[in-house]
Amino acid sequence: MLTLTGKLLNLRALEPEDLDFIYDIENDESIWEISATQTPYSRFLIKQYLENAHQDIYEAKQLRLVMVSKEQETIGLIDLFEFDPKNKRVGIGLLIAKSENRYKGFGKEALQLVCEYAYKHLNVHQVFANIGEENEASIKLFENLGFQQIGVKRDWNFVNGKFKNELFYQKLS
C-alpha cells in the first residue's frame, strides 16, 4: 500500500473505511464546481469505486490519496489524473474537506509530496493543474510551489448560470 510521509500529514491509499468521507465529499454540492460533478453519488457506487481503487496508476490513469494528519484526522484528498506515461505528464488536484483545516500547511505539504512522487516514481516531466480563476487560495498555493500559469481556458465552466474561466498551471521537472 502506498503511503507518503510528511511532517504534518501522511498520504495513503484509499481504504474501505473511507466510504463515508468520500460519500460526503462527492455529494457536497458546494464543491461540485471544482470536481465537475453534476449528480449525487450513491453509497453503492462509491463502495464499488473503493473496491477498484487498488488498480495501478498505469492501468487506471489516476490515483487518489487520502490526506491524514499526524493525529489521524482525515483532512482531504489529493488526486493524480490523466496520467500519460508516453508524454510524461499527469494532472493534480487537491481538496481540504473542512475549512478549519485550510491555511495550515496541509495542502502545501501534500502537493510537495505528490509532485516528488510523480517526478521520482512515475518519471513524469510535468505536472499540471486546472484552477478556477476565482480560486485565489489554490492559485497562491500552486504558484508558491513553482507552478506557472501557462494559459486561460475562457468561459470553460458553466456554473450557476454563468461561464467562468479556468487557469491552466504547469510545473516542469
From TrEMBL:
InterPro entries: Acyl_CoA_acyltransferase, GNAT_dom. GO terms for molecular function: diamine N-acetyltransferase activity. Gene3D superfamilies: 3.40.630.30. Its EC number is 2.3.1.57. It comes from the Bacteria. Keywords: Acyltransferase, Transferase. This is Spermidine N(1)-acetyltransferase. It comes from Kordia antarctica.
